[in-house]
Amino acid sequence: MLMSPHARLATVRRDGLASRRSGWLALLAVVLTATVIGAAEPAPRPNIVLIMADDLGYAELGCYGSQRFKTPNIDALAKSGLRLTDYHSNGAVCSPTRAALMTGRYQQRAGIDGVVTAKAHRDTGMSLEEDTVAELLQRAGYATGIFGKWHLGYDSKFSPTRQGFDEFEGFVSGNVDLFSHIDQEGWFDWWVAQRLKYIAGYAPHRITDQGIEFIRRHKDQPFFLYLPHPAPHSPYQGPGDTANRKVRHGFEPEELRGATVSPRLVGDEAARAYREMVEDLDAQVGRVVAELEQQGLRDNTLVIFCSDNGGISNQTLGSDNGPLRGRKGQIYEGGHRVPGIFHWPGKIQPGTCEQTVLAFDMMPTFAALAGAEPKAKLDGVSLQPLLLERQQLPSRPLMWMTGERTAYREGDWKLLIQGRTVELYDLKNDLGESKDLASTQLDRKQRMYEAALKLRAEIRGAKPMKTGS
Ligand SMILES: [Ca+2]
User: Fold this and answer.
1) Is residue 151 annotated as a catalytic residue, yes or no?
2) Running DSSP on this structure, what letter comes out for residue 314?
């Protein structure tokens, strides 16, 4: 069993008390032990910075093979950190992944199987009873901040500031106009904690500015900074473009009244804006890393970069899942295998890793690093042994579900259930899921099918679904 540094020290201290009672010789041993322990004093608990892109596909970064976009900052993180080739979002769309990320469990356990839509789910959100990773880290004494996209409930009663985040600025819908901060249904959607507030600026820049301020304010204590970016999700707007949405419902800030809006960008202009969004996202990552460097925090900060689901796969636009089949919303690999990079100088050895990791592994990992105890039994596992010692994670069945569509994975084998169709792929030899082996691997198919239904029933039985697909 791995013992946390805190547990190790506590054990030594307990042993020390016992020894002192047993005489001078033992006291000498305590002093010697303390000296040895002092020499091996564990590093303080790391800060955690989690940067998540929105709809960024598997092959849209230079370090994942993109020839189209220049992403030098994220590529540098990958080069001096651990680049995962088999990292997955838990959902194939936004809200489900975020629910799993926040709770360390399959999102269906929190009732978030699909998107919390701006139209039909304005009074729906993740239950406050869920124990979130932010609450976990808050209990452990971390300062917690989220700047960017929440997407786990519109009403302020579901605000991230009620789910363990000390600070929040950003939006709660699936996407906002990056300039006027209006959601796709025409509601103004920019919040500071639990209040709507107009703040001018290109959303990705504003989010980074707030993240940097947060780092400066909390540099002397452990902190958890979550930066869920809106890029490169639609609407496609580069930093030099202008607003194209108007308020149609609810509160309209004075600053937006009478403002002119541009038409939505299409064709080559949308592709140009998409490229700018990906490359600007890279620049924002660079700004955060540079700030950590400047504050002398880089060696004690775990920086993670990932995406929340696969790309929409549009060659004209530039959304690209590379060799993977399918796209956002689907349970083929293109829907959920995404970039995943872990960076911690001196602690995580640089390299590439082929082990399978999901977003819900973040919470148990952070719990282990912070010495904190989750309240619920988590589905994810701690990545600490993998990240720090490059150990093999325990083998485990994994599942992606959206409605009745189910993907079930055991090692390199993946079974898909879509209606009455059952497919079976060997990802090791067929990453593109082009050769269905369901009719030739009958025993394997049947065994995995039964295991998948059993696991699905166990997970889905947990809570009625609240969301749409
Ligand atoms: Ca998304």
Assistant:
1) yes
2) B
